[in-house]
């Protein structure tokens, strides 16, 4: 359903929302210099916008001189449906974050459903603060959780056959420079049972590992001080490190070739609407995503069927915009925040 917003609509909506909490806000004359709309359009049921504080929004250079005093001004001067050419009206799937997780998700989605409209929002166009490029690009299989072990094993196989997955028009993908070198984890006497249990789980799923006694550790790693060490586990295959920037570039280029749309933009909130079910239950649902474009520094509403949170350290902040951890409906917050 298309959302039609006028200056009158926005003024009425946000004066009502913030006037009770902020006595410094002066009500705006709704008849002054506003576009005239039909009564039916003005009386449309109002929606509640959930926004992060504009002071905490990722800073995109302003292109106008409009003073911003509060959230009401921030929305009133930024929200528009006159879109710059690269902002779509709707998408099937909106992915927040275009680094390795977001780009990989987009790639796998388009592989399985080529007709899906997939859009990625990435506010840091050069990935200067992305966790992907700030990491060492390590790959290991030594986890306790089965799902983590399985993902690592799949990741190793994926890298072995990366040309089959990420090549474009039979050209070799960007070389990720994977260096095979196992991880060595060591434990004290208290950790022996845990190491043995994890080893059984890991090897049963296909991980190639080796348990080592203190004498075996001294022989294989003569430089290692084994005082206090009673057990070690070493990855003999499918562990090592790679160039994370190269892998991100390969995923991004492949996703682009499959039709994924990347936008230099930031999610700043959601348009929510109350829905009443047949049993009388009232539920707040996300209606539209509010997108702050770096091209013109304005906010655009976007229809989307699914939103995928791949914002890395900022995933908790994105979750709050959707009401997770800040509402009675979803009281438990996503425990993720930047260091």
From TrEMBL:
Judging by the UniProt lineage, the source's domain of life is Eukaryota
Keywords per UniProt: Oxidoreductase
- GO biological process annotation, one example: mitochondrial respiratory chain complex I assembly
Pfam annotation, one family? DAO
Listed SUPFAM superfamilies: FAD/NAD(P)-binding domain
Tell me one GO molecular function of this protein. Answer: oxidoreductase activity
Domain FAD dependent oxidoreductase as annotated: residue spans: 92-331
Q: Name one GO cellular component term.
A: mitochondrion
* Keyword Oxidoreductase among UniProt keywords: yes
What biological function has been recorded for the protein in this entry?
Required for the assembly of the mitochondrial membrane respiratory chain NADH dehydrogenase (Complex I). Involved in mid-late stages of complex I assembly.
Protein name per Swiss-Prot or TrEMBL: FAD-dependent oxidoreductase domain-containing protein 1
| Lineage summary | Eukaryota, Metazoa, Spiralia, Gnathifera, Rotifera
